[in-house]
Amino acid sequence: MLDTPLLLTAAFIAGALNAVAGGGSFLTLPALVFTGVPPVVANATGTVALLPGYMAGAWGFREDMQPPPGLSMRAVVLLALIGGSAGAGLLLITPDATFRKVVPWLLLAATAMFALGPRLRQWAGASAHGLAAPWKAALGMLAVAGYGGYFNGGLGILLLALFGLLGQTQLNAMNGMKNLVSALLTAIAVAIYAAGGIVLWPQALMMMVAATAGGYGGARVARKLPANVLRWGIVATGLVMAALFFWRQ
What we know:
Blueprint: H1 3-20, H2 25-34, H3 39-60, H4 73-92, H5 96-115, H6 117-126, H7 134-150, H8 155-165, H9 171-195, H10 201-222, H11 227-248
Helix pairs in contact: 1-2, 1-3, 1-10, 2-3, 3-9, 3-10, 4-7, 4-9, 5-11, 6-8, 7-8, 7-9, 8-9
Organism: Acidovorax benzenivorans
Pfam families: TauE
Protein name: Probable membrane transporter protein
């Protein structure tokens, strides 16, 4: 039976990709769906599998973290939890048929955000003086956290762009906050997914181990690849996965 090797391989590579550049959800969600898991359950289960990587990343940047202008650390944590809860709750009430139709569009959007990531961050940096009002910062954080609670793909790029837009300039601080917010909203989303009974725990735990191993071991191999090769490889994967989901509809 090929299901187990497929899920382990997808989770391992996803862990490595998330550690280096992001894009792991482009592999875990399709892998679970292609093994017969309903899309909503696949999204929840894949999110559970990637949670340890976010937590490890947040811990690694713990000394560099600082909130972006316009927000306190307490506000960032609260908004991440509220937004993650709202997004996860929305996923719970989304029928599989509806989510199956939405998934390829979400994959396309996430792939576009990933491909345009450097330009998004440059644009955000150039516009940094216009969006630091507390209510705008809070609204932006809430929207991105809600997206992350509903669909994880492209979350890191959105968070980095948001932090740059708010005026944050230190890359280590941005990456630290990105991992912290991702871990927080994913953790609350996982709790809601679990309470809603939409997590396949055998697959989730198996993939969690593989993703963690990939984050620590596979990332060493991925780091040897030129950044452009890695980025466009992820973009190509996202496009292929979106096309396959469109074809399966």
